[in-house]
Design a protein that fits this description.
The chain has 130 residues and is α+β, with helices and mostly antiparallel strands. 39% of the residues lie in helices and 22% in strands. The model has no long low-confidence stretch (mean pLDDT 93).
Length: 130
């Protein structure tokens, strides 16, 4: 049984991942996915993976996610790739954000590497009106 503090930590991280995915999608990232790697990774609970359109756009998305997290009282423990390139990683401990160029995403293939992970539904549900 998990404690209330542990449940709150997991829910905070899950919501940060969902909001990061939504922000990435809203700022023109494609193929956005959240993987729940609890029980599979000793390092983190959630991975947010997205494909960017350019190094500049990827950096902008990463910075916006870091700003959003900071407003919630969280911050990235470390970041890599902000100076350009094909992969940006921001480690929030319980959630790790990966933004790839399309080519780097295919090369590193984190989606298949973590193929046993559960996918988290992050898109807002819309209701169809007729």
């Amino acid at each position: 049984m998990t404690s209330t503090a542990e449940s709150n930590r997991i829910e905070f991280s899950r919501q940060l991942a969902i909001d990061a995915a939504r922000l990435a999608a809203a700022t023109h990232c494609t193929n956005v996915a959240i993987l729940d790697v609890r029980g599979l990774s000793p390092i983190t609970d959630f991975l947010v993976i997205a494909s960017g359109t350019s190094p500049r756009q990827m950096r902008s998305v990463a910075e916006e996610v870091m700003e959003m997290a900071q407003q919630r009282g969280d911050r990235a423990l470390s970041t890599n790739g902000l100076d350009g390139g094909s992969w940006i990683c921001a480690d929030f401990i319980d959630m790790v954000l990966h933004i790839f160029s399309p080519e780097a995403r295919l090369y590193y293939d984190l989606d298949n590497l973590w193929g046993d992970a559960r996918r988290v539904e992050w898109q807002e549900q819309t209701t169809a009106t007729n």
